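@channel sequence for tomorrow's demo:
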Amino acid sequence: MWALFVRDTRLSIRAGGGALIGVLFFLAVVAVIPFGVGPDLNLLARIGPAILWIGALLAALLGLDRLFQLDREDGSLDIMLMQETPMFLTVLVKCLAHWTATGLPLIIASPVLGLFMNIDEVAMLAVAATLLAGTPAITFIGAVGAAVSVALPRGGVLVSVLVLPLAIPVLIFGVSAVNGAIEDPAPFLPPFLILCAITLFFSVLGPFAAGAALRASPD
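structure tokens (generated this afternoon):
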């Protein structure tokens, strides 16, 4: 499992630019917002956490279609399906490797990009904490979409269409937790705990559903 984790992490970084492409896309989304809403610093500070979350969500969708595509092209997926290791565990490790290579850099970059939105230190820490709790759920949800579309020639668009509606609750509770931390520390905890619960739920359901979809996918 450790060898699979290291291998998939390296593939996620190399394939299509990996973490660099995600961070650059995140930067592009956040950087253009001040040009659209104008130089109102108070407005930027108010909508900043939501913009950071939307940018991170869209950036996290990049590369999800390649979660199993490379394994299918080189024949590794067939070996994974035939091995004795449960497919649930294999998919879980692949999701963790993908999140390490693509999701973790977004979390690290979020405080820096928060400077574009004029948000304070508390909001920056809250955004980073909620992204740390919520972005793994996006990867687990995306694993199901990637498994369903692995045999399709243009599965990237389908993955985004399948994943985005299911990721809306992650966005809602992530932004709610950040807004609660800005207004009063007390309201931060309930939505943050719900966000953690969503991630834990999909960490079980996602690999199971993705493994079943991979086994049922046509050759």
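heads up for whoever presents: Residues 133 and 196 are 6 Å apart (CA to CA).
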